[in-house]
Amino acid sequence: MKSMEGVYFMRARKSFKCGKNKTQKKGKIMEQEIDWEQEIYGRGYEKLDWERERKKKRDFWVALDWMSTGVALMFDWFWTFGSSVDVIRPFLKFTGEKTESFPCPAETPCGCRHTIGETRRDELIATCCCEWQCGTYELEPADILFHGIDFERFGDAIGQALGFAKSSAAAYVSAGLREIGTHVTAAVPVYLSLEGPDGLLRELTKLLGLRDSPFLVLTPTGSSWSPEVEAMARPHAGGHISLSSVLNASPEGFVSNGAVEPMLAECDKRVASLRDTGGTLRSIHREIAAVRQDYSELRTAKQRLEKMVGEGMLSFTQKVDAESFKVLCAILAEGDVSKASRVLRMPDPSIRTIMRRWRERGKEYRAMLELVRWRKKVSRKETVPLNEAVLQEKAETVDYPGLLSDVLEGLLSMSEENWQERCEELADLLRPVVSA
Questions:
Q1: What angle do CA 18, 21, 24 make, to 5 degrees?
Q2: CA Rg value for the chain
Q3: Does residue 66 contact residue 103 with C-beta atoms inside 8 Å?
Q4: Which of 214, 328, 379, 410 has the most crowded CB, counting CB atoms within 10 A?
Q5: What residue ranges in 10-63 does DSSP mark as E strands?
Q6: 194 contacts 65 by C-beta, under 8 angstroms
């Protein structure tokens, strides 16, 4: 309960020694031993008045709002729910625990827990131990057993009445927050809570630590949905519905009064807005990441090529004739001999004849053949711009290693996911040729 002692007992607890009866006479307090024989055998004990409690007018949802733990003695259920107790009774089950004390059953409770004991005839009794002397009540064994809400059946009944589907995965369950279904339209889980404001805030903090996504919470009256709870829930598109505003409760079950539809529509809008915003942000983040990755790859490829130039791996180009270098760059840029012939305006057979001669002209020309083979492995589809200086054939004024590096950089920066691998392949094939 929110505090069973705070709700059911309006006075502070006091500790008194049982077995003594205190009376006051002429300003003096006199202690008198209780005659237990007379107490036990001289008269009968008072009975618990269940019907008296049942006749008290109580609102079901307000009463449920007081039961944060969902566990109490049956007499407490009667006292709290009164006329609506038959609505909750079908959902109560024995917890397996029993109490060591009993609430005062008097019409005007004294505010203290009664001590549970047994008579010499093995009868269970609840004895008042405070100065009010409310009397001794006879109990049945079932009276001291705790009964709790079967939240699975209770949640199903509420979910069905409101049109929620059952959870498709394992339901989230904690001490004060229980997943009872799914709002299909918005695809959000629905939770039931009987906690007060502080308890609900604590439970949602735990939930969002595990599930950072939209949700819908049902509470009995809405009194626990405080401004602090709303402030926590709103950034996550967390919604709330007070059951007292959407369901009619009776012993026959729960029936929707039609007020839930606009509330669910508002929930849908909130969730859709969050997801649209989140999707846009994720898209922006992906684009930024892609640009960063492309930039990083381009810069790294250039640095790797500059290192290869510094190591002399492209210096062989300074020892080849201008026409051969022009053919090499055209093939690397265009992807194959046929395309290179169109760019160079040279017959295809002429280019192939030039390339056949490379096999006989030393390691520098063999390096060019290795580059052509490497180009075929990269891809023949993509092309890169060819610097006009390549076509001028002026070896004495042109930086051939730099020009070749530019062509290779263009190839490596094409949307190749494995450009680093290609770059290392290039270094591996050139290293033995130039060092031979």
A1: 140
A2: 43
A3: no
A4: 328
A5: 20-25, 28-33, 46-47
A6: yes
Q: Is-contact 361 368, C-beta < 8 A? A: no
Q: How many CB atoms lie within 10 A of CB 43?
A: 9
Give percent above pLDDT 90 in the chain. 40
Gap between the terminal Cα atoms of the chain: 88
For 409, the 3-state DSSP assignment is helix
Residues in the chain: 436
Confidence of residue 382 (pLDDT cuts 50, 70, 90): low
CB atoms inside a 10 Å sphere around CB 190: 25
- Token pair, residue 408, equals 């290779």
Q: Per residue in 204-227, is it b (16+ CB within 10 Å) or e — as a string?
A: beebbeeeebbbbbbbbbbebbee
CB-based contacts of 261-265 (< 8 A; 24+ apart in sequence):
263/239, 264/183, 264/185, 264/186
User: Which amino acid, one-letter code, is at 422?
Assistant: R
Do the Cβ atoms of 78 and 58 come closer than 8 Å? no
Return contacts of 365-371, CB within 8 angstroms, 24+ apart: 365/320, 365/324, 366/433, 367/316, 367/430, 367/433, 367/434, 368/316, 368/320, 368/324, 368/325, 368/328, 370/429, 370/430, 370/433, 371/328, 371/332, 371/426, 371/429, 371/430
Least confident of 39-48, 131-140, 206-215, 230-239: 39-48
Per the CB < 8 A criterion, the answer to whether 159 and 171 are in contact is no
Query: What is the per-residue pLDDT for 398?
Result: 63
Q: Are strands 46-47 and 136-139 parallel, antiparallel or unpaired?
A: parallel
Q: Residue 237 has which token pair?
A: 């598109």
Alpha-carbon span 82 to 78, nearest angstrom: 5
3-state secondary structure of 114: strand
pLDDT at residue 15, rounded to an integer: 34
CA atoms within 13 A on the CB side of 29: 4
The encoded tokens of residue 39 equal: 């107490």
Q: Residue 164 has which token pair?
A: 């929620």
- Helix or strand or coil: residue 188? strand
- Predicted TM-score (pTM) of the model is 0.56
pLDDT at 415: 45
Provide the total of helices (H) and of strands (E) in the chain, helices listed first: 16, 16
DSSP class of residue 121? T
